[in-house]
Amino acid sequence: LAEDVAQDVFIKVYKSLPSYRHDKPFKHWLHRVAANTVTDSLRRRRPLVSLDGLEQTLVSAGSDPQDVAARHDLQRAVRHAIASLPPHYRDTIALQAFGELSYDEIAKALDIPLGTVMSRLNGAKRLLRERLGDLIRPSEEANTA
User: Fold this and answer.
1) CB neighbours of 102 closer than 8 A, spacing ≥ 6?
2) Low-confidence ranges of the chain (pLDDT < 70)
3) Residue 2 near residue 38, CB atoms below 8 Å
């Protein structure tokens, strides 16, 4: 994944060089191209649903169709909530959640300090809890009842 994305970044930078505005810092432009490429790559990498064994999964013990539908709705809501985050939060949480990168790898990929990675992840998670509160609280309450 990382090598493929790095290659995509270099290709996109090469193709986008004519759009670079020389009155702006190159580093910032490069960061934006890289972050957008990573986000696009992660969006394209969403796992494809395999229909093989789907029926077996749905009828297996504990696979109530309502639970399956609720899980699907929650996944869709989470993807939508992540997509609606400010770009600096979205890029950071996407690299962690979907890219499965460590904090150090995220810091290097985004060219930001490790503390900034941790701060952005905390901010992103806080916003996600606020936006998804109604969807995640019922299961938490059910576990404590």
Assistant:
1) none
2) 1-2, 42-63, 99, 135-145
3) no
Percentage of the chain modeled with pLDDT above 70? 75
Burial class (CB in 10 A: 0-12, 13-18, 19+), 110: buried
Amino acid letter, 87: P
- Contact predicate 103/114, CB 8 Å: yes
Alpha-carbon torsion (21, 27, 32, 33), positive or negative: positive
CB 93 within 8 A of CB 82: yes
3-class secondary structure for 73-130? HHHHHHHHHHHCCCHHHHHHHHHHHCCCCCHHHHHHHHCCCHHHHHHHHHHHHHHHHH
